[in-house]
């Protein structure tokens, strides 16, 4: 008897990890499959693509709103170079980009809120489902907004429950 397994995989990331989290679904042009694999590049990308993304104060842009230190860390290239600009992830959104839950604070001075806003705009243009929350106050790196992580903020901490509910809506 043949069984069908449905995978429900969500990739979640805070800050710089958003680069790899949100780039992976769009990295199809850069992926190579070792010759010993008996799977096509297309099938491999289909298998490893998450079904959803949760991105908190993500580093997305490689333009005027870039977090230069973060981008230099992952690209290893000079500012404005083609290699550096490749990491402008809002430019890589396509029909295969998974739905995204994004949250940010308007006061974030490390990663400007425009990173989430422009990514949401790119998702909207491609008709990719997304949910975006921008809290008016709060610094960068609030994580889950609890005292245990040093950023106790019940108001902003609502994102955790909201993201879980959003995942249920996406998956069930």
Features:
172 residues; alpha/beta; globular; four-stranded parallel β-sheet
Short description:
Helix content is 31%, strand content 13%. It is of the alpha/beta class and 172 residues long.
Can you describe what's shown?
With 172 residues, this protein is an alpha/beta fold. It is 31% helix and 13% strand. It is built from six helices and four strands, in the order βααβααβαβα. It has helices at residues 17-23, 41-48, 68-75, 82-85, 114-125, 158-171; strands at residues 10-14, 52-56, 100-105, 130-135. A four-stranded parallel β-sheet has the order 1-2-3-4, with helices on both faces. The chain starts with 9 loop residues before the first strand and ends with a helix. The mean pLDDT is 83.
- Unreliable stretches: none
Sheet with the most strands: spatial strand order: 1-2-3-4
Topology as H/E string? Answer: EHHEHHEHEH
Radius of gyration (CA) equals 17 Å
Structural class comes to alpha/beta
- Distance between the ends: 25 Å
Extended strand count: 4
Mind describing the biggest β-sheet?
A: 4 strands, parallel
What are the SSEs and their pairings?
Elements: E1 10-14, H1 17-23, H2 41-48, E2 52-56, H3 68-75, H4 82-85, E3 100-105, H5 114-125, E4 130-135, H6 158-171
Parallel strand pairs: 1-2, 2-3, 3-4
